[in-house]
Amino acid sequence: MADLGKPTFTARVERKTGETQIDLHLNLRGSGQADLDFPVPFLRHMLHLFAVHGRFDLRIQADGDVDVDDHHLVEDIGLCLGKAVHAALGDKRGIRRYGERHTPMDETLARAVIDLSGRPAFVLQADIPTERIGSFPTELVAEFFKSFANEARMALHLAVLYGENSHHMVEALFKATAAALRLAVEEDGERIPSSKGVLE
């Protein structure tokens, strides 16, 4: 069994492939500062909101084959962010583990529920009415969150309970996820929050 060590709440993840190059820094106990430099404007906007509403410090320098489409870069940024969360939390000693948040965005209401269980699971219930938001394909919302949940080794359950505007729906999902994660990583005693004594 790996010795993951106590949480540091900070991590850096680098990824270089033939499709993407990513350098990501995360501080889960930050103040909501975002420094984002990569060529997918809508995802930059969403991750800025993610940092602000989670009060995380997030820095991403990235590039990729967006001349093909945004898929690889969006998926790999989600992957790197998930890896950073997992690394930052170590053995998860002293955190709450669970987080849940309902978040409205005008006419839309979204829900995010998180369990930092060490077991990846992802569920998204959302009927986003348009195929694109600006130039951003809305099918990539699920790809981003799936990569994020898998690499963070969390159970992430997301739902848009109701709404009409695609932008509002996706924005509410990112804000709700950030707020739920903020709750899940809050201090809660000294123990590893599991009856098994381990969360991997």
Kindly list the characteristics that best describe this protein:
alpha+beta; 4 helices; four-stranded mixed β-sheet; 200 residues
Descriptive overview:
With 200 residues, the chain is an alpha+beta fold. The protein is 33% helix and 30% strand. The protein has helices at 41-54, 71-89, 139-152, 166-184, and strands at residues 10-16, 20-27, 34-37, 57-64, 98-105, 108-115, 121-125, 132-133, 136-137, 155-162. The chain has a four-stranded mixed sheet with strand order 1-2-4-3, with helices on one face. A hairpin with a 2-residue loop joins strand 5 and strand 6. Helix 1 packs parallel to helix 4 (166-184) and helix 2 (71-89) packs parallel to helix 3 (139-152). The longest helix has 19 residues, at 71-89. The model has no long low-confidence stretch (mean pLDDT 94).
The coarse overall form would be globular
Low-pLDDT ranges = none
Radius of gyration: 16 Å
Strand order of the largest sheet: 1-2-4-3
Helix content: 25-40%
Strand residues, percent = 25-35%
Major sheet details = 4 strands, mixed
> Helix and strand succession?
EEEHEHEEEEEHEH
Average pLDDT metric: 94
Our measurement of the CA-to-CA distance between the termini, rounded to an integer number of angstroms, reads: 9 Å
Total beta-strand segments: 10
Number of helical stretches of at least 4 residues: 4
Structural class: alpha+beta
Summarize the structure.
By secondary structure, the chain is α+β, with helices and mostly antiparallel strands. It is 33% helix and 30% strand.
